[in-house]
């Protein structure tokens, strides 16, 4: 049974301040929120006195934002909790795959412990939903899936999740295991570079779609292939997505090719992706071009940000703070004004922002799920730009991290 209480003295954004038509800041108001049955049941001004005797948790005038979504992580790969190690440079993705295949089984700290450590970091940073990829390949079988499911079970009631059955080492050799993974809790079929890793774009994409349709699942394809090779792959995936009726259930992670082509070509691709209902997920790399997020968004493409590698065999970097990654997106993209910074928040909240582009208050509303994060910031723009401290995380009406 969910708790019923008042979240008092909560700061909500109420509109933009403007001067001669230019946004110069964000207005806020202090309110009391009644949290009941996992939802926001009532919103009243903080000047009103509460007489009902229900428990109260004081937000102390801190900002309230929608809780965050981590759209790209690998709970089975992180080395968090184990000894420090840097990454061995390689000349190809195949060398990296071989290093990973040898390293992970030999790590002393159990996968379960490492996965739970990363989930705890996510929770404290404001995340209440994760999409995790789980390696599926013949030598490992479904062991990683079983372990990740156990870690997620530990956080039951604290966050929601999606699992991608991820054929990191190639799709064809793992197709039967992938089918079984869908039966055992995965809800997405993954894939990696159909041209480079699988060596056959058409056969790889056809099998991905076949498995997704057969298992009533979605697709999340890791696509590192650059330039027109990557573009061709996405175009074909878009066609197959529409033919199979999978619109809205397909994502492409990384999609570096969209950052390699001209803006005119990217606009044309954005129209194709929007028409097929394909989501683009970026980790905002700083060592290569990545998809033009603003352009894609303007064209109606759903875009999300994920952290991806958090101290693993692929990268020694990453701290699991998705708000930090959103701040990086704004910084790299040159989004420095109030409205653009606030808009950046939408890429880590599933599209939710307190204010819409016109400055109208759209979140929270009575009846909304009470999944939110309390932040030491004056507004969304500051939270993104300054990567402001998270005070507490609430999931479906329960405080799951921090204190109020």
From TrEMBL:
<dbReference type="InterPro" id="IPR052349">
    <property type="entry name" value="Metallo-hydrolase_Enzymes"/>
</dbReference>
<dbReference type="InterPro" id="IPR011059">
    <property type="entry name" value="Metal-dep_hydrolase_composite"/>
</dbReference>
<dbReference type="InterPro" id="IPR013108">
    <property type="entry name" value="Amidohydro_3"/>
</dbReference>
<feature type="domain" description="Amidohydrolase 3">
    <location>
        <begin position="116"/>
        <end position="400"/>
    </location>
</feature>
<protein>
    <submittedName>
        <fullName>Amidohydrolase family protein</fullName>
    </submittedName>
</protein>
<dbReference type="Pfam" id="PF07969">
    <property type="entry name" value="Amidohydro_3"/>
</dbReference>
<dbReference type="InterPro" id="IPR032466">
    <property type="entry name" value="Metal_Hydrolase"/>
</dbReference>
């Amino acid at each position: 049974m969910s708790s019923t209480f008042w979240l008092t003295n909560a700061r909500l954004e109420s509109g933009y301040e403007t001067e001669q038509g230019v946004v110069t800041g964000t207005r806020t108001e202090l309110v009391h929120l009644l949290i009941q049955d996992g939802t926001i049941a009532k919103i009243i001004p903080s000047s009103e006195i509460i007489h009902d005797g229900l428990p109260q948790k004081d937000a102390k005038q801190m900002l309230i934002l929608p809780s965050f979504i981590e759209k790209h992580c690998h709970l089975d790969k992180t080395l968090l909790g184990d000894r420090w190690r840097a990454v061995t440079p390689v000349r190809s993705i195949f060398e990296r795959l071989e290093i990973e295949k040898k390293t992970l089984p030999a790590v002393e700290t159990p996968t379960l412990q490492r996965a739970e450590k990363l989930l705890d970091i996510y929770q404290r940073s404001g995340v209440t939903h994760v999409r995790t990829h789980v390696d599926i390949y013949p030598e490992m079988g479904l062991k990683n899936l079983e372990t990740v499911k156990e870690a997620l079970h530990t956080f039951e009631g604290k966050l929601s999740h999606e699992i991608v059955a991820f054929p990191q080492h190639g799709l064809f050799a793992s197709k039967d295991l992938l089918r079984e993974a869908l039966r055992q809790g995965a809800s997405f079929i993954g894939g990696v570079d159909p041209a480079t890793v699988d060596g056959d774009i058409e056969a790889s994409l056809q099998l991905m779609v076949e498995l997704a349709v057969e298992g009533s699942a979605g697709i999340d394809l890791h696509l590192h292939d650059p330039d027109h090779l990557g573009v061709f792959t996405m175009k074909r995936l878009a066609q197959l997505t529409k033919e199979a009726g999978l619109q809205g259930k397909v994502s492409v992670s990384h999609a570096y090719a969209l950052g390699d082509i001209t803006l005119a070509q990217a606009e044309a691709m954005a129209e194709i992706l929007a028409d097929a209902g394909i989501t683009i997920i970026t980790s905002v790399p700083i060592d290569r071009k990545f998809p033009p997020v603003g352009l894609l968004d303007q064209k109606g493409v759903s875009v999300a940000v994920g952290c991806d590698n958090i101290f693993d065999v692929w990268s020694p970097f990453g701290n699991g703070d998705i708000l930090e990654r959103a701040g990086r997106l704004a910084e790299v993209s040159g989004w420095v004004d109030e409205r653009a910074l606030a808009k950046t928040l939408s890429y880590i909240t599933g599209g939710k922002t307190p204010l819409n582009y016109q400055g109208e208050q759209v979140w929270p509303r009575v009846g909304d799920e009470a999944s939110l994060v309390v932040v030491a910031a004056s507004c969304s723009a500051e939270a993104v730009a300054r990567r402001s401290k998270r005070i507490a995380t609430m999931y479906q009406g329960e405080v799951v991290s921090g204190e109020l």
